[in-house]
Amino acid sequence: MRMDRKPHLTKKPADVKCQRVDDSMVPGLEDEATEVEHLLVEPQSEHVSVDGVFCFGKESIEKHFKTEDFSCAFDFGWKIGCGGLDSIHGRGGDDLKLEVLDGLLDEVDEVDDIHAAHDLSSACDDFLFDIKFPEKFSELDHVPHDISNLHNSSSESHSPGFSGSISVEGISESSFVIVQESNYKNSVLGEMVNYDLHHTFGSKCSCPDPVMETGRHSIEQDQGFVDSDDEKPLVSFILSNKKVKSSVEVRKGSTHLRQKRLRKPTRRYIEELSRNSIAGKKCLKVEPQEDFPQVPESQPRRGRPRKIVPKLEFESDCELSASESEEEERKRTKTSRTACDRRKHQRMWTLAEVIKLVEGIAHYGVGRWTDIKKLLFASSSYRTPVDLRDKWRNLLRSSSAHEQNMGELQVEANTKHNARMLPKTVVCRIRELATIHPYPKVRNLNFHLLIPTFHPNN
DNA sequence: GTTAGGG
DNA sequence: CCCTAAC
């Protein structure tokens, strides 16, 4: 394998970029993978070309680090380097390789489109931007807690060194092999890099998350969350980018969770939608990025009721355009959201995001949401610290439910309640972190502290 | 400005 | 996801 690929290496690294665009995608990918493999095999001689290919600036101090990070990225992203390494060490990587290549060929079409559609330089920039936080991550990378709960389905088949990056953090439910801490960290880094590669390349590589890929036999088929986790966010991403009005239709069918918010596109909604399509051009300033702005405001909210709801006159006032009326209502309710409405549309949490969140909590503990956001979710502007906290809250809830249900052997009911299951390992880690960093209940404590002041003795 | 808690 | 109160 290695020798076969050697001749390809004569191609200059600087050509890789061009090949990705000019050539058909399959050879381009092969060459790319070859480069990666080469990097893996002879890292000391390839540092320069890594920088050249990916436009890394000279400001990088730890090139060695970068090379490793890249190996992570490519191992996860395209997996071919993985096969190469495995074959080098002569330990059953062939099966994996074949699977990977099959998957790769399946992905070629989509990847090709993406590459063609993207300006490569900008993609590079994005890549650079995204690649930074894993470095930072590794700088403060001491994971204070026991991470040995993470299991590796195939750790024995990998060599040390790069193997950490290759051995995707285990999802296998069958074999529980303890992963060394360093390996795990590498895997997380690589995974995050890969996650951002998804973003950089349009998040449509259709290559599933690395975790899922390794655990494909166990997770994808058994629990079937891949579709709901990875595809739906993509759909919403694409739709929101295109500002397709009809996104409602797509979103409606996406998950059960969303149905709560999006159900009942009532007649009034349809009316307002049509009105908005006319008036929206006048009032572009208001909510330029709203896909379907009217629903949440004009319909009874799911959450806490607004303080003032004088809706009758509003409803009868058909002269107002939708956006105008919305603004009117805002004035009335005096909630006065900022000019650019902060309300976002739901964006499904991908498994990679969840893992990033979990890792962030492992580093910072619970409560430092802004730190976690700045460090790990810097590139995803749609995740606010509050979102992270909410997600963690939900994760705690679902993981505890998972625990209980497992005790009662009610897996079926479990999947029913938690429509979007998490891999067992992630759930384990969440529970582990939950014990280490208990979710704060400060106010209750204060409340209890206040009670004793009411001593009957005094 | 950030976080906790409730919806 | 959104809102509000508390810090």
From TrEMBL:
<protein>
    <submittedName>
        <fullName>Detected protein of confused Function</fullName>
    </submittedName>
</protein>
<dbReference type="InterPro" id="IPR009057">
    <property type="entry name" value="Homeodomain-like_sf"/>
</dbReference>
<dbReference type="InterPro" id="IPR001005">
    <property type="entry name" value="SANT/Myb"/>
</dbReference>
<dbReference type="GO" id="GO:0005634">
    <property type="term" value="C:nucleus"/>
</dbReference>
<feature type="region of interest" description="Disordered">
    <location>
        <begin position="289"/>
        <end position="308"/>
    </location>
</feature>
<dbReference type="Pfam" id="PF00249">
    <property type="entry name" value="Myb_DNA-binding"/>
</dbReference>
<feature type="domain" description="Myb-like">
    <location>
        <begin position="341"/>
        <end position="396"/>
    </location>
</feature>
<dbReference type="InterPro" id="IPR017930">
    <property type="entry name" value="Myb_dom"/>
</dbReference>
<keyword id="KW-0539">Nucleus</keyword>
<feature type="region of interest" description="Disordered">
    <location>
        <begin position="323"/>
        <end position="342"/>
    </location>
</feature>
<feature type="domain" description="HTH myb-type">
    <location>
        <begin position="341"/>
        <end position="400"/>
    </location>
</feature>
